[in-house]
Design goal:
Blueprint: E1 2-3, E2 11-13, H1 18-28, E3 32-36, E4 42-47, H2 48-56, E5 76-77, H3 82-92, E6 96-101, E7 104-110, E8 122-125, E9 146-147, E10 150-151, H4 152-163, E11 167-172, H5 176-183, E12 192-197, H6 203-206, E13 219-223, E14 226-228, H7 232-241, E15 246-256, E16 260-265, E17 268-274, E18 277-289, H8 305-314, E19 319-323, E20 328-330, H9 334-343
Parallel strand pairs: 2-3, 5-6, 8-11, 8-13, 11-12, 15-19
Antiparallel strand pairs: 1-7, 3-4, 6-7, 9-10, 13-18, 14-20, 15-18, 16-17
Length: 344
């Protein structure tokens, strides 16, 4: 339980942006921000999940923070005993319970048993040819290209290790022996590594069929050419709290048309928009997949993860999106590689 005298570390009062709320949540490291009025009364709470749901509604990080506040949080009275609190948190699947007395916050119950990333296997897709990088991948597989003194795949593994992931599977095909020699069994990287070597091209999901019967809980799938510090634990929590079969990491992407866009209805002009900007969420190449989806993958043929999404939707499976607002870069083209090297 956190006491009242710690409240400045996990609360905010006055005006703030969504971006500021995220900074405060990260700084407190407990996963929640309490929003108080000038008298210390609880106005609501904000969690990482609240922010990401707001982004999916079209909000931006510079929007007013109150737009993502949960204005009706579950609270407990100061007289509540530990067993009562534990029952509420278990029944409601929540990790935080503000303690109030006369509407004022006097403490916070915190469930430390958040989603355990140590039990989350990670599958890194590293079998592609990397043709968009031209001669750079003629003798070196793209995941081994150096960025800041470490291969791209090394940055990914280091991030997963820091996030608590212990077991990594790497799918290989092109120049597979170089990847396997470089990373070995993972001992030097602080994780356990095994390899799924493809003899033929199986696409971005075909190799996952080999996990059927071997994994019995959700697992992470990630492209082997991404540089991102996305929050692994929050993505796993998001997946579990929403009862999803697949959670797709998505990234906000804007396209500005450099011309006036004319809207027509037959021969008639119905409107015009001068140099409009269109906003989308694009596939970020990061997924959490539950094993219930594995039977939908067909054996020994090219089978991309987008096809797995389509099959899942047709089968009535719950497929949700998780906005990634953290640093993210797909190192697919020479200009992307230059950008990555400038950051490290």
């Amino acid at each position: 339980m956190l006491r009242r005298d710690d409240i400045e570390n996990w609360s905010v009062c006055g005006e703030f942006t969504i971006r500021k709320a995220l900074e405060l949540i990260d700084r407190s490291a407990i996963g929640i921000l309490l929003v108080l009025d000038a008298d210390g009364k609880l106005m609501g709470t904000i969690t990482d999940g609240d922010v990401r749901r707001g982004l999916l509604r079209g909000l931006k990080l510079d929007n007013v923070g109150m737009e993502v506040v949960n204005a009706s949080p579950i609270t407990v009275d100061v007289a509540s005993i530990r067993s009562e609190v534990a029952a509420i948190m278990s029944d409601r699947s929540i990790r935080h319970l503000p303690i109030v007395e006369h509407d004022k916050v006097v403490g916070l119950w915190l469930n430390e048993s958040k989603s355990d990333t140590s039990r989350l296997p990670a599958v890194l897709m590293a079998g592609g040819l990397g043709t968009r990088l031209g001669d750079l991948t003629q003798d070196t597989p793209k995941p081994l290209i150096d960025v800041g003194g470490q291969p791209i795949l090394g940055h990914i593994i280091s991030h997963l290790k820091k996030a608590g992931v212990e077991n990594v599977m790497i799918t290989t095909r092109y120049l597979a022996e170089k990847i396997e020699t470089h990373f070995g069994n993972g001992e030097d990287w602080g994780v356990n590594i095994e390899y799924i070597r493809e003899q033929d091209r199986l696409g971005t999901a075909g190799a996952l069929k080999r996990l059927e019967g071997r994994v019995h809980s959700p697992f992470l799938v990630m492209n082997g050419d991404l540089l991102t510090d996305f929050n692994v634990a929050e993505m796993l929590s998001f997946h579990e709290e929403n009862g999803a079969h697949m959670t797709v990491g998505v990234r906000h992407y804007s396209i500005r048309v450099p011309f006036g866009v004319v809207e027509v209805d037959g021969l008639k002009v119905s409107g015009i928009s001068e140099k409009p900007t269109f906003d989308f969420f694009v596939n970020a190449g990061v997924y959490i997949v539950s094993p219930e989806l594995l039977p939908l993958i067909e054996c020994d043929r090219l089978f991309d993860i987008t096809e797995l999404m389509e099959r899942g939707l047709e089968d009535g499976k719950e497929i949700i999106s998780f906005p990634i607002f953290e640093d993210w870069l797909d190192v697919g083209r020479p200009e992307d590689l230059d950008k990555a090297r400038s950051r490290f």
